[in-house]
Design brief:
Layout (H helix, E strand, L loop, with lengths): L1 H6 L10 H26 L5 H17 L5 H14 L14 H49 L7 H29 L7 E4 H15 L4 E7 L3 E4 L1 H18 L5 E8 L3 E7 L34 H11 L3 E6 L5 E8 L3
Parallel strand pairs: 2-4
Antiparallel strand pairs: 1-3, 4-5, 5-7, 6-7
The chain binds adenosine-5'-diphosphate (ADP) and magnesium ion.
């Protein structure tokens, strides 16, 4: 009987309120009880048979009408256990449009998001291990050659090894930064930062590292902002590092800051190859690099812009990539003065 009922669609499936459903079920039970009693009376059933028949038929009516109402809840309970054990393929199937149906839809959405986060995390670990393994293997190889006296510890070899070690430590620093930023759900520390002074300072530091570069700083309006100064410094220097890396030697790089009544806009513009519009959102993905950026080239491992994005998100701002005129990249960061 219950198997047969389970196959039948619930007659109340289209009703969007669980309260209304239960009201209808109670009404139906009362009507069936009263109807059966009347019928029993008319047909001359013995007095003790009438309430039994009325109760039994009311139960059947309730079973038919309430059919399938609690099935999604049972499914959710058993699937939540499976999800807790790492099986994210679980979904609840229901046609119900009431609150239980909405809960099932939220449950499915949550399972989908957990699956996406899980796969992102797995990809992240795979990518990070791959990026770390490459320089470690190269250093190990060179050290083995030195120990076996296949090569001599000449300045060139030592310089190459130093570069690989620097690359490795930069990568580890970026990974630690990202995990620190991911964990910072409470938001950044807030202090009054003079963004103009900060932009000049970052430009000055970059200029010392790249004496041939032409970095122009343009400031306009009040640039005091409530922010985490170290994060803001990292944001601007990551953007400037990209501009320096992709710009042709000698082409000017503009670092601008513009203050408005409720926000500050920071832009870093270069005359490099630019980033095609269709891949601009991908550039903020972790480990993503355009073809030819090279995993162990002069730059990083594709984490710089994702760090920037996370810093901007923590400050409640936005970051976007645009074209620079006539060619090149213009990265625009808009930060609210206060969160
Ligand atoms: N100013 C730029 N000009 C051209 N391409 C850029 C620029 N900034 C970033 N990109 C592209 O976006 C990718 C991701 O940048 P990023 O996250 O900073 O990683 P990384 O600098 O370590 O490669 C770069 O590898 C490059 O392909
Ligand atoms: Mg970078």
């Amino acid at each position: 009987m219950s198997r047969l009922l389970q196959r039948l669609p619930s007659p109340l499936v289209r009703i969007r309120s669980i309260k209304l459903k239960w009201s209808l079920i109670i009404l139906a039970a009362v009507a069936v009880t009263a109807g059966t009693s009347q019928l029993g009376f008319a047909l001359g059933w013995p007095v003790w048979v009438r309430p039994i028949m009325a109760g039994a038929l009311a139960l059947v009516a309730v079973q038919v009408l309430a059919q399938g109402m609690t099935a999604p809840l049972r499914a959710m309970a058993s699937q939540a256990d499976k999800i807790a054990n790492g099986d994210y393929d679980q979904r609840v199937h229901t046609d119900a449009e009431d609150e239980i149906g909405q809960l099932a839809a939220s449950f499915n959405g949550m399972a989908e998001r957990l699956a996406a986060v899980d796969s992102l995390q797995k990809d992240f670990i795979a990518n990070a291990s791959h990026e770390l393994r490459t320089p470690v293997a190269a250093i190990q190889n060179q050290l083995e050659n030195l120990v076996d006296r296949v090569t001599q510890p000449d300045p060139d070899t030592l310089q190459r090894m130093l570069q690989q070690t620097e690359h490795l430590s930069a990568l580890v620093r970026q990974l630690l930064d990202l995990s620190r930023l991911d964990a910072a759900t409470l938001g950044p520390a807030r202090e009054l930062v003079a963004a103009g002074v900060l932009l000049k300072q970052v430009a000055h530091e970059a200029q010392l590292m790249h004496p041939g570069a032409d970095i122009v700083v343009q400031l306009d309006g009040p640039l005091g902002i409530s922010a985490d100064e170290a994060m803001l410094h990292q944001l601007v220097s990551n953007l400037l590092a990209n501009a320096l890396r992709f710009s042709p030697i000698g082409a000017p790089i503009t670092l601008s800051g513009e203050g408005a009544s409720d926000h500050v806009t920071i832009e870093v513009a270069d005359h490099g190859p630019g980033i095609a519009p269709e891949i601009r959102t991908r550039a903020f993905e972790r480990f993503w690099q355009a073809d030819g950026s090279g995993p162990t080239g002069s730059g990083g491992a594709g984490l710089g812009l994702s760090i920037c994005k996370r810093i901007v998100e923590l400050h409640g701002g936005t970051i976007s990539i645009h074209s620079n005129n006539p060619e090149g990249t213009r990265v625009r960061v808009r930060l609210p003065l206060v969160p």
